[in-house]
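Quick one, T. Sequence first:
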Amino acid sequence: MGDSGEVQYADAEGANLRKSEVHSIALEERLRHGVFSKFGAWTSLRRMRNGGGSRKGEPMASPAAPSSFDVAYWFIDRALDDDEYLQPQKLHRLMFLAQAYFAVAYNGRKLMPAIFVADEFGPIEPNVFRACAIQRPPIEAKALPEIVTHFLEGIWRRFGNHSAEFLSRQVNAHPPYGAALALGVGSEITLKMMVAFYGKKMPTMPEETAADMVAPPPVDQILRPRLMRSQNGSPVSVQKWMPPVKTSPKKS
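Structure tokens:
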């Protein structure tokens, strides 16, 4: 520890620590030396060690899926289950919609640790796009959490029957893609833009009608009810609760 009371990490191993790990160690050192209160220190430590969870009202820090490749492989394999070869452009539209709707449903939390950029043909995840340009790379897919597979089933059920051309036409007409493309090919489509648009309250319409509209379907048409069992063994459909959207009163 230096004269200023800050913890110093001069060795090579310490130099390679992630910032969050260094910060965690520094918090413990400061706690031992009484630099600040135990409550504040352990709150910060607990937040980092629980995956970077956020304070109330802030987006979740840790994505739900380990990588974008795991999500891509899930869609590819799910399409094969339906005897469909998943075209690359359709794959990337599905991944984009999944990232957007998951963030809407789960208070800004990312589905996968990925960014999306505006390609001339539509939104793409650039790392998956490059890696899978010739063939599926030999990357072992990790098992996805149940919350993710359940959500992806909802995305596939809602959008999987559409062609790549249809999905591209729909998504490319939406403001997040258009605004990014206006800045130049390869510009990032931010998660904030995605949540603002796909989480916006749209006029209520039948699900079969919404499928043919440019306007995106509401998130409650994406989330599939989960079947659970009552104490007597009967199936019970459980839907994720979504808070009501507040609307500003109309001015007379």
